C-alpha cells in the first residue's frame, strides 16, 4: 500500500500544471504560441507554394492528362461512341449501330461549338488513318439530308471507303475516352489492322531516333562544357584578384547577353560567308568554293549550345574551387607527391561536388533546349524539343506533343535518379 | 483607415484596368505575314480604312498556321480580330469550329455592279473565309551570278550538274513534293493523283533526295530573298511577291521561273469570339472591295480575288512596271502551274510532314 501511495503522491505534484499569470496552463499556452508561429511560417511560404502549384504542378498535370485524354469521340458522336464499345470488331457494324452513327454525325454537323464539331473527330481519326479527314467532313455534309435507312447502304453510296472493316475497327478505338495512341505515336509505334502494336514503317520513324540524338548531343555538349570550363574555373579561383575579376567579367558578360543575340552572333560567325570562313579563305587554308558548312547542322547546334551553357558549368566549379585552400596542394607536394598525383588525389576529389552540379545543370538544360537548335540546327541539328514545338505550333496535335513532353520528363527523371545513385544529390554544390 | 486606403487604391487600379480595356476595344488587331506583304496591305487596306472610320489598327505578324487562333479560342481570350491565312488552314480551322462564319450575301458588290458571289473568282469564298489574293510559290535566281544558260524549268531546279550551288526550300512537305514530281516529269494536272499513291510519295522523296545535301531550309517568307542576296543559295523557292518586291523595291537582279509553280489563296478569317468582331467584319468587307484589292496589286504582285479588280490593276506604285504579267494568274504564267489541293493536304499533311521530318533528320 505504502509503495503505491508514494509514487501517486509524487505523481500528483508532477501533474500539478504550471499556471501562467492569466490562469491558462503554461503548456497549453506554449503549444498555442508555437502553433501560431508555425502558421505564420507557413503563410510566408504560401506565395511560393501557390506559385509552384500554378506554374508547375497544374501545367504538368494538364500535360499528363492531355497525353491520354481522347475526347473527340464522346464529344462529337456521344451515342455512337458508347454503343460501338459493345461491338465485337468483326467486319462492318450492324445497321442499328450505323444508324446511331449517322444520326450522331448529322447532329454534329450542325454544331459549331469548339471541340464538338465533325472536324475535331475527323482530325482525330486522320492521325490513325491518314487520308480519312475529308471522308468525315464530306460525309457529315451529306448525311444531314439523309431521312431514312438503310443507313449502311447510304454511307457506302456516299463513299465506298465506309465499306472498310479497318475504318470501323479504328473508330471503335479512337472513340474511347482514354487512349495510349499518342504514346505509341511518340515512340514510333502504331496499331496494325488486327489491333496489335507494331513499329511504324521505317520511313516514318522519327521520335526515337531524335530522342537518342538529343541525349547523345546533350552528353557531348556537357562533356565539352566540362573540358573547357574546368581550367577556366581553376584560373578564376587561383589568379590574383585583378586578373580573376577581369576573367569573371569575360565569363559573365555573355551570360547576361540575350540568348538570341548570342545565337545570332554565332550565325554571323559560322555561316558560309561568315567571319570564320572568310578568315580561313583569306589565310589560304581552304579554297573559295570549299567553304565549310559549320552552321544549320548538328555542328552549329553543339558549338552555339556549348557557348551558351558554359557559364552554368563554370560558376558551380568556381564556387567549389574557391573554397579549396591552396595549402592542401602545397602540403601534398611538400610530402613528395608529384603534380599529377597531388592533383588527382587531393585537388580533383574536392571539386567533384562542383562537377556534379555543373554537369547535371548543363545536361538537363541541354536536353530540353529549344531556341538555339531551332535557329542554328538546320535539318540534322534538331532536338526533341523542336519536334514538341512543331506539334504544339504547327500540326496542332497537342496530345502527341504532350506525350513527347511526358517522355522527355521521364527521361530527365531517370537521368536524375541515375545521377543520384552514382554521385549522390547531397554531394551537389551549386555555390 | 488603412483599409479604406487599400480599397481606394484597388478601385483606382481597377478603373485604370477597365479604362485600358475600353481603349483596346477600339483597336482592331489585324494579323498577317509581315514584310512586303503586310506593307501592301497597310497601303491598300489599313490606311484607307483608318481614314474612313478612324478605327485604330494594330498590325501583327505571324508565320502562318492556326496554332495561335486555336490557343486563343480555346482559352476564351481572343486578341486577334482578323487573320490572313492559307486555304488549307482556313478550311481546317472552320471545320473545327474556330472561326466565325461569314455571310457571303453581305459582301459588297463589285464596282461594276456584279454581286459579290459572282464577282469573286470561283473557289475563293468559303463558309468562314473570304479570299483577298492569289499567291504562288515559284523559284528564283540571281541573274548577276548565273551566266550563260539560265534555268527555265522545274527540272533545272533539281539539276545540280547543270546549275551547281545551294538550293533554298521551305521547310515542310507542302509544295516541295509537288515541285519534285513536276521536276520528275509529272504533268501539272496529274500531280495530286500521283501524290495520292504511296509510289508517288516515294518518287517525290527520291527526287528530293537528289538535292538534299545542297538544301538550305527557310521558314519565313522574308528569308529567301535574303538568302539569294547573301549568296547563300544559287536557286531558291519563294513566294512570288517577295521576289518581285526585292526586284522592284530594292533593285535586286533576281529572276522568277514560273514553270511548275504551285498557287494558293490567302484569305481573311475572323477567330470565333473575336473582341471586335463587328469591326473586323466591316474591315473584311472594306478590304475585299474591288478598289482596295486592285490597289494592293500595285504594291505586291499577288492577284486580286475579284474579277472586277483585274482591269484596274495597273503599274507598280512608284515605278513603270506593268503588274499584269507579274501576277500568278496571268495566262502566260499558268501554262504549267498547279493549284494547291487543300483537300489533299488536309488529309495527308500530318502523315507527310512526319515522313518529311524523318527524312530530314536522316
Question: Can you offer a commentary on this structure?
Answer:
- The complex is a heterodimer of chains A (431) and B (362).
- Chain A is mainly α.
- Chain A has three domains: 24-57; 73-177, no CATH class; 207-427, MetI-like (MetI-like fold).
- Chain A is 69% helix and 1% strand.
- Chain A contains 20 helices and two strands.
- Chain A has helices spanning 2-14, 26-68, 72-76, 78-83, 95-108, 118-128, 133-143, 151-158, 165-174, 181-186, 207-238, 241-256, 259-270, 275-282, 298-321, 326-334, 339-367, 371-376, 384-393, 398-422, and strands at residues 189-191, 197-199.
- Chain A has a two-stranded antiparallel sheet with strand order 1-2.
- In chain A, helix 5 crosses helix 7, helix 6 (118-128) packs antiparallel against helix 7 and helix 13 (259-270) crosses helix 15.
- The longest helix of chain A has 43 residues, at 26-68.
- Chain A is flat and about 100 Å long.
- The model of chain A is unreliable at 1-12 (pLDDT under 50).
- By secondary structure, chain B is an alpha/beta fold.
- Chain B has two domains: 2-134 and 266-323, D-Maltodextrin-Binding Protein, domain 2 (3-Layer(aba) Sandwich); 136-263 and 326-361, D-Maltodextrin-Binding Protein, domain 2.
- Helix content of chain B is 41%, strand content 18%.
- Chain B has helices at 2-24, 35-53, 67-75, 87-95, 116-119, 154-157, 176-183, 191-195, 198-209, 223-229, 240-250, 277-287, 290-296, 342-361; strands at 27-32, 56-61, 82-86, 125-126, 129-142, 167-170, 215-218, 235-239, 254-269, 303-304, 338-339.
- In chain B, strands 1, 2, 3, 4, 5, 6, 7, 8, 9, 10 and 11 form an eleven-stranded mixed sheet that branches.
- In chain B, helix 2 runs antiparallel to helix 13 (290-296) and helix 4 (87-95) crosses helix 14.
- The longest helix of chain B is centred in the first third of the chain and has 23 residues, at 2-24.
- Chain B is globular and about 55 Å long.
- The interface between A and B is large, with 43 and 38 residues.
Amino acid at each position: 500500500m505504502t509503495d503505491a501511495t508514494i509514487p501517486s503522491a509524487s505523481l500528483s505534484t508532477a501533474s500539478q500544471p504550471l499556471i501562467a499569470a492569466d490562469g491558462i496552463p503554461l503548456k497549453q499556452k506554449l503549444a498555442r504560441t508555437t502553433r501560431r508561429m508555425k502558421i505564420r511560417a507557413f503563410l510566408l511560404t504560401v506565395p511560393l507554394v501557390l506559385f509552384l502549384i500554378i506554374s508547375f504542378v497544374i501545367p504538368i498535370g494538364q500535360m499528363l492528362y492531355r497525353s491520354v485524354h481522347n475526347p473527340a469521340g464522346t464529344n462529337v458522336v456521344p451515342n455512337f461512341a458508347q454503343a460501338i464499345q459493345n461491338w465485337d470488331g468483326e467486319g462492318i457494324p450492324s445497321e442499328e449501330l450505323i444508324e446511331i452513327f449517322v444520326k450522331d454525325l448529322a447532329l454534329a454537323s450542325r454544331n459549331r461549338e469548339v471541340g464538338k464539331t465533325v472536324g475535331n473527330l475527323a482530325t482525330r481519326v486522320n492521325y490513325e488513318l491518314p487520308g480519312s479527314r475529308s471522308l468525315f467532313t464530306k460525309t457529315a455534309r451529306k448525311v444531314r439530308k439523309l431521312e431514312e435507312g438503310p443507313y449502311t447502304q447510304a454511307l457506302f453510296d456516299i463513299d465506298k471507303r465506309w465499306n472498310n472493316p479497318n475504318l470501323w475497327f479504328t473508330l471503335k478505338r479512337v472513340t474511347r475516352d482514354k487512349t495510349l495512341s499518342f504514346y505509341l505515336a511518340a515512340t514510333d509505334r502504331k496499331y496494325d489492322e488486327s489491333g496489335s502494336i507494331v513499329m511504324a514503317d521505317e520511313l516514318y520513324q522519327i521520335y526515337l531516333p531524335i530522342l537518342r540524338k538529343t541525349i547523345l548531343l546533350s552528353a557531348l555538349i556537357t562533356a565539352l562544357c566540362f573540358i573547357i570550363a574546368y581550367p577556366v574555373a581553376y584560373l578564376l579561383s587561383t589568379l590574383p584578384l585583378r586578373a580573376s575579376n577581369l576573367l569573371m567579367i569575360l565569363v559573365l558578360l555573355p551570360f547576361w547577353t540575350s540568348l538570341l543575340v548570342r545565337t545570332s552572333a554565332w550565325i554571323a560567325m559560322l555561316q558560309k560567308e561568315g567571319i570564320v570562313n572568310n578568315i580561313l579563305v583569306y589565310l589560304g587554308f581552304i579554297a573559295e568554293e570549299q567553304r565549310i558548312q559549320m552552321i544549320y547542322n548538328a555542328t552549329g547546334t553543339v558549338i552555339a549550345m556549348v557557348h551558351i551553357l558554359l557559364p552554368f558549368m563554370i560558376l558551380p566549379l568556381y564556387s567549389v574551387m574557391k573554397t579549396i585552400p591552396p595549402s592542401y596542394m602545397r602540403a601534398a607536394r611538400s610530402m613528395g607527391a608529384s603534380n599529377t598525383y597531388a592533383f588527382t588525389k587531393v585537388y580533383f576529389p574536392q571539386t567533384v561536388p562542383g562537377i556534379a552540379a555543373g554537369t547535371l545543370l548543363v545536361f538537363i538544360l541541354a536536353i530540353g533546349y529549344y531556341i538555339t537548335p531551332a535557329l542554328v540546327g538546320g535539318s540534322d541539328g534538331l532536338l526533341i524539343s523542336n519536334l514538341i514545338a512543331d506539334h504544339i505550333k504547327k500540326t496542332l496535335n497537342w496530345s502527341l506533343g504532350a506525350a513527347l513532353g511526358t517522355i522527355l520528363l521521364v527521361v530527365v527523371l531517370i537521368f536524375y535518379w541515375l545521377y543520384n545513385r552514382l554521385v549522390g544529390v547531397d554531394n551537389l554544390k551549386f555555390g | 483607415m488603412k483599409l479604406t486606403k487599400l480599397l481606394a487604391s484597388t478601385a483606382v487600379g481597377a478603373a485604370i484596368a477597365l479604362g485600358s480595356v475600353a481603349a483596346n476595344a477600339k483597336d482592331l488587331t489585324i494579323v498577317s505575314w509581315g514584310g512586303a506583304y503586310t506593307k501592301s496591305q497597310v497601303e491598300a487596306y489599313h490606311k484607307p480604312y483608318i481614314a474612313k472610320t478612324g478605327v485604330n489598327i494594330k498590325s501583327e505578324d505571324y508565320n502562318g498556321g492556326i496554332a495561335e487562333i486555336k490557343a486563343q479560342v480555346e482559352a476564351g481570350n481572343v486578341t486577334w480580330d482578323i487573320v490572313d491565312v492559307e486555304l488549307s488552314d482556313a478550311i481546317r480551322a472552320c471545320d473545327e469550329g474556330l472561326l466565325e462564319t461569314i455571310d457571303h450575301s453581305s459582301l459588297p458588290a463589285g464596282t461594276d455592279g456584279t454581286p459579290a458571289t459572282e464577282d469573286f473568282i470561283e473557289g475563293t469564298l468559303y463558309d468562314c473565309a473570304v479570299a483577298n489574293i492569289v499567291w504562288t510559290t515559284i523559284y528564283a535566281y540571281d541573274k548577276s551570278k548565273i551566266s550563260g544558260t539560265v534555268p527555265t524549268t522545274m527540272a533545272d531546279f533539281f539539276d545540280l550538274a547543270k546549275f551547281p550551288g545551294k538550293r533554298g526550300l521551305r521547310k515542310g512537305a507542302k509544295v516541295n513534293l509537288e515541285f519534285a514530281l513536276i521536276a520528275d516529269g509529272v504533268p501539272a494536272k496529274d500531280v495530286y493523283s500521283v501524290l495520292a499513291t504511296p509510289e508517288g510519295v516515294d518518287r517525290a522523296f527520291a527526287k528530293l533526295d537528289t538535292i538534299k545535301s545542297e538544301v538550305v531550309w527557310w521558314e519565313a517568307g522574308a528569308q529567301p530573298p535574303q538568302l539569294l542576296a547573301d549568296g547563300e543559295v544559287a536557286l531558291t523557292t519563294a513566294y512570288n511577291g517577295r521576289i518581285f518586291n526585292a526586284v522592284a523595291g530594292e533593285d535586286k537582279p533576281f529572276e522568277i521561273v514560273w514553270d511548275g509553280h504551285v498557287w494558293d489563296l490567302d484569305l481573311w478569317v475572323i477567330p470565333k469570339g473575336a473582341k471586335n468582331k463587328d469591326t473586323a467584319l466591316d474591315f473584311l468587307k472594306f478590304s475585299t472591295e474591288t478598289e482596295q484589292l486592285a490597289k494592293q496589286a500595285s504594291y505586291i504582285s499577288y492577284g486580286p480575288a475579284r474579277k472586277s479588280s483585274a482591269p484596274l490593276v495597273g503599274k507598280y506604285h512608284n515605278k513603270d512596271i506593268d503588274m499584269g504579267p507579274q501576277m500568278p494568274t496571268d495566262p502566260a504564267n499558268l501554262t504549267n502551274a498547279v493549284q494547291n489541293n487543300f483537300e489533299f493536304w488536309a488529309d495527308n499533311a500530318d502523315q507527310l510532314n512526319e515522313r518529311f521530318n524523318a527524312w530530314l533528320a536522316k
